[in-house]
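Why should sequence recovery work at all? Because a backbone constrains its sequence more than one might expect. Tight turns favour small or flexible residues, buried strands favour hydrophobic ones, and helices have their own preferences. The token representation captures these environments compactly. In the example below, the structure is given first.
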């Protein structure tokens, strides 16, 4: 008997979660500052402006969107761990007002409501969808050229195959075709190699790509930019790892004299600081830095997407509607202060729009055992590291990172953290039994 799943919707509260990026630039102006148009504390003006332009938001709506995206990321982090196999994925609604999470156990409804959510029925869990994607990935060599990619589509609770003539491919993969939807597409994705996103670097005789994010000893970028052992210039270094196709990631160890920093070029005369690499939810806003097109923003459409380039299939990408153009390969994708990935490829451009894909940065960090360099100029935690909590026994506070096992006091009582998370207003210990006991 097929189990049903529940979906929950979380509505934005008035409290602001600081999810922006830091920069040394200040807003220029004359007379009294227009606080209504100013970005929230800690949010780079270039990012805040690009969000308004590309997502068609007012300043107030952009601030609300940053709040919602921060809540979505924390909700995803908590429920993915606490619900385990019962977790059905997280996404932000198209109107940017609610967060939706699928669960597969009706008995968890109260735990969900304790996080401010409303249950709704769906048919499949995230794990079931990912299992279908994995089967298609294993048969990627059998995909016809008319199939351009596939992905788990959380809002429709199905796996989408882009293209035509997919029947034989689906049969060879042995997937539940009732869970698969084949859609026509005009996409013709290509990896972007010629010019940079973020700062430029050069490979071999002059091929250019872009630096994604600084890591201990070097930087990460796209795998199609260079093979292991290839040399780079500006900055000078050596590819110590590269995977493409299958994946699209690489890391370059830079030579002595080059200093990795936790910054991204904002193409407004300054730099944007990187605070970490917390994964954003489907539907969350995301901004991309590229030397060809500057800052451009959009939303995360789907995760666990597979794309068939002429060189082969790349799996595990994130699909977005933020534009890019050839040469933005390897460039930086951020959601608020958080690093998300490096540009892989896509279709379209920044005049007519398009669909773009990025390789998640946490997978790169895990694959090579790297540490992200954050805004303080030193190394931040790796994707799998445990974050240190404030001193044991301290008073609970919002916007604070708590690790599993941390103890706090609230309302005269002591509580122990059951699941590591960043605290939010409204998630005080008595209100969220899933987090505190």
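From this structural description, the recovered sequence reads:
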């Amino acid at each position: 008997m097929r189990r049903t799943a529940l979906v929950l919707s979380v509505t934005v509260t008035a409290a602001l979660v600081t999810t922006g990026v830091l920069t040394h630039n200040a807003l220029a102006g004359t007379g009294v500052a227009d606080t209504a148009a100013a970005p929230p504390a800690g949010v780079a003006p270039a990012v805040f402006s690009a969000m308004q332009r590309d997502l068609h938001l007012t300043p107030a709506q952009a601030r609300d969107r940053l709040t919602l995206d921060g809540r979505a990321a924390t909700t995803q982090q908590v429920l993915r761990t606490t619900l385990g196999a019962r977790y059905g994925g997280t996404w932000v609604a198209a109107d940017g007002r609610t967060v939706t999470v699928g669960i597969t156990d009706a008995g968890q409804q109260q735990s969900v409501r304790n996080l401010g959510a409303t249950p709704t029925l769906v048919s499949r869990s995230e794990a079931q969808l990912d299992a279908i994607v994995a089967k298609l990935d294993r048969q990627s060599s059998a995909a016809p050229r008319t199939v351009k990619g596939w992905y788990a589509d959380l809002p429709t609770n199905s796996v989408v195959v882009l293209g035509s003539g997919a029947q034989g491919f689906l049969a060879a993969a042995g997937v539940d075709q009732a869970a698969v939807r084949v859609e026509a597409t005009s996409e013709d994705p290509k990896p972007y190699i010629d010019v940079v996103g973020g700062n430029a670097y050069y490979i071999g005789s002059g091929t250019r790509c872009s630096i994604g994010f600084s890591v201990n000893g070097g930087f990460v970028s796209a795998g199609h930019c260079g093979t292991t052992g290839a040399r780079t210039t500006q900055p000078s270094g050596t590819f110590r790892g590269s995977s493409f196709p299958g994946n699209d990631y690489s890391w370059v160890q830079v030579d002595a004299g080059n200093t990795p920093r936790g910054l991204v070029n904002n193409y407004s005369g300054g730099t944007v600081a990187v605070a970490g690499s917390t994964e954003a939810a489907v539907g969350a806003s995301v901004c991309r830095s590229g030397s060809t097109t500057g800052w451009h923003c959009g939303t995360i459409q789907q995760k666990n997407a597979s794309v068939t380039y002429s060189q082969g299939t790349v799996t595990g990408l994130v699909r977005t509607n933020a534009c890019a153009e050839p040469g933005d390969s390897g460039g930086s994708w951020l959601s608020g202060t958080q690093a998300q990935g490096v540009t892989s490829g896509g279709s379209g451009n920044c005049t007519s729009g398009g669909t773009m894909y990025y390789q998640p940065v946490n997978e790169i960090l895990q694959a090579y055992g790297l540490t992200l360099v954050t805004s303080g100029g030193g190394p931040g935690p790796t994707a799998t590291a445990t974050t240190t909590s404030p001193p044991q026994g301290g008073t609970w506070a919002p916007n604070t990172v708590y690790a599993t096992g941390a103890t706090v006091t609230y309302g005269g009582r002591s509580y122990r953290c059951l699941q590591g998370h960043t605290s939010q207003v409204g998630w005080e210990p008595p209100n969220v039994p899933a987090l505190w006991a």
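A few observations help interpret the result. The radius of gyration is 21 Å.
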